[in-house]
Amino acid sequence: LPFLSGSRSSKTFKPKKNIPEGSHQYELLKHAEATLGSGNLRQAVMLPEGEDLNEWIAVNTVDFFNQINMLYGTITEFCTEGSCPVMSAGPRYEYHWADGTNIKKPIKCSAPKYIDYLMTWVQDQLDDETLFPSKIGVPFPKNFMSVAKTILKRLFRVYAHIYHQHFDSVMRLQEEAHLNTSFKHFIFFVQ
């Protein structure tokens, strides 16, 4: 992978979060992919009949994490400490990092550092069986909806940064259609 070479930390590239094959969540993911294939994004985000809302949100949150991870991974060579000394989406939107555990008071940091913190934080949430249970019948926590909303709100910031700071690179790489479809899907889902 050429974009993993150079001085950049490959830590930004989180391993793809796999949903176990044969699981109910895997079937839900396949359903989501099939409806996405129809080209109707509004229909693709609808909760399938008879399905658990939390499980649907969990599967889609993992999927968006993987998509954003991949999209950002293609432009990391352009998103450096030098080119993006602050995490922003234009002069009016600057994001400071805090995870509430290790970093309690929000800190100002470069975009690549912020995104590394963010993706590591999301990965840790997704790997936490008490928050994102992967076994059938294990209940989701009472605060699941607020956890998922926080994750999605923060993932939105990566899209915002890519669009504001790196869209020219995305166009040079001819990835704008993929980025636009992913973002549109994301927006319909969070709505």
UniProtKB/TrEMBL annotation:
Please tell me the species this chain comes from: Aegithalos caudatus (Long-tailed tit)
Q: Tell me the residue numbers annotated for binding Zn(2+).
A: C79, C84, H161, H166
Please state what the protein is called. MOB1A kinase
Gene3D superfamilies tied to this protein = MOB kinase activator (1.20.140.30)
The family database entries (InterPro entries) matched by this protein are listed as:
MOB_kinase_act_fam (IPR005301), MOB_kinase_act_sf (IPR036703)
Classify the source by domain of life: Eukaryota
Coiled-coil portions = none
Biased composition (Polar residues) is annotated at: 1-10
The Swiss-Prot or TrEMBL record annotates one GO molecular function as:
kinase activity
Record keywords:
Kinase, Metal-binding, Transferase, Zinc
Q: Which residues form the signal peptide?
A: none
**Disordered: annotated span:** 1-20
